[in-house]
Each structure stands twice: as C-alpha cells, then as structure tokens.
Amino acid sequence: MPKDDEDRLVQMNVQVPNWVRQRLRERYVRTGEGQSAFARRAIIRLLEEDDEPKPKEG
Fold first, then answer.
1. Helices (H), the chain
2. Phi-psi sector, 37: left (phi>0), alpha (psi -120 to 50), beta
3. Are 27 and 34 in contact (CB under 8 A)?
4. CA 47, 23, 27: angle at the middle one, nearest 5?
5. 43 contact partners, CB below 8 Å, separation of at least 6
6. 9 C-beta neighbours (distance < 10 Å), count
7. What is the pTM of this model?
8. Category of 12 on φ-ψ map: left (φ > 0), alpha (ψ -120 to 50) or beta
C-alpha cells in the first residue's frame, strides 16, 4: 500500500468515533467486509446513519 494511502486511512480513522471503529472491526472479523477503504467508508456511513436518533412516531 502506498504511503499516502496509509496516511489517508490514518486521517480518516481519526475522524471515526470509537464505537464505529469497534463495529467495523467486529463486522470485518465476522464477514470479511470492509477490506477496502471504499467499503469501509460506506459501512461507516451506514453505521453513522443507524446511530442518529430517529424521530419517534405516535
């Protein structure tokens, strides 16, 4: 992996909350997903959407 790719991953990881990183790791171990930076970003986006408080209906 080129050095600037590693740096970009490090910078990206700085912005990722710990709970997201934890879930990412669990998911990676369980399913092998998230091996590419693109897949990781997509999964992180999904996790962040999941974590936003949803308006309660009723």
1. 3-14, 18-31, 37-51
2. alpha
3. yes
4. 100
5. 24, 27, 33, 34
6. 13
7. 0.34
8. alpha
3-state secondary structure of 47: helix
As given in the structure block, the two tokens for residue 21 are 């990183």
**Among 2, 13, 22, 19, which Cα is nearest to 41's?**
13
Using N-to-C axis directions, what is the helix angle for 18-31 and 37-51, rounded to 10°? Answer: 120
Tell me the C-alpha distance between 43 and 33, whole Å: 9
Task: Look at the block and give the residue holding tokens 């590419």.
Answer: 36
Task: List pLDDT tens digits, range 6-23.
Answer: 666 556 556 677 777 787
Please, what is the end-to-end C-alpha distance for the chain in angstroms? Answer: 51
